[in-house]
Design a protein that fits this description.
The protein is 88% helix and 0% strand. It has 177 residues and is mostly helical. The protein has two domains: 94 residues, no CATH class; 55 residues, no CATH class.
């Protein structure tokens, strides 16, 4: 009886080991991707590290043997690799989204820090100084003298010569000859 039990157990182990080692590479890749798909949303960094190592090992084997695959195996392999890549991409996007979210949450604090550092008294004093300077410049202009200079300038312009020069320019640039 013991011998029969031992023989049955040995046969079961042999069949299990034989099946595990005889599984094709596309089948192993499919099984790996299916397992990952079921669990990846709960992966921590260590799980992702192990998963990527296992995937890299499978991908290296696929690259070595790809030319010997049937068309069906090639399609299955590319589909599985694409599915795994999309899971990794989803994880990376979620991580980037979390980082951006944290950054956006800190913007109001940064703005408040800047506002708190602004010396509003110094700014007001600076603006008042600029205003006083402009008022001083305006007051120092001798408007009567300025008006007289402008009138003298307009009287000294020979409008006939100016018109002649402008007409010449129009002919040159306007295309008239």
């Amino acid at each position: 009886m013991r011998t029969k039990l031992f023989a049955a157990l040995a046969a079961a182990v042999a069949i299990t080991v034989g099946c595990a080692t005889s599984m094709s590479l596309p089948d192993r890749l499919d099984k790996f991707v299916e397992k990952t798909e079921k669990e990846y949303k709960n992966y921590d960094e260590e799980d992702w590290k192990k998963s990527k190592e296992e995937y890299d090992a499978l991908a290296a084997q696929v690259n070595e043997k790809y030319d010997s695959f049937t068309t069906s195996e090639k399609v299955r392999t590319m589909k599985a690799m694409g599915k795994y890549g999309s899971m990794v991409l989803e994880k990376e996007i979620a991580g980037a989204s979390d980082t951006i979210g944290s950054m956006l949450e800190s913007i109001p604090e940064a703005i408040n820090g800047i506002i708190n550092e602004i010396d509003t008294v110094a700014i007001k004093e600076g603006v008042d100084g600029i205003k006083n300077g402009i008022e001083g410049i305006i007051e120092s202009i001798d408007t009567a003298r300025l008006r007289k200079s402008v009138e003298g300038l307009t009287q000294s312009i020979d409008t006939a010569k100016l018109r002649e020069k402008l007409e010449a320019l129009v002919k040159i640039f306007g295309g008239e000859e």
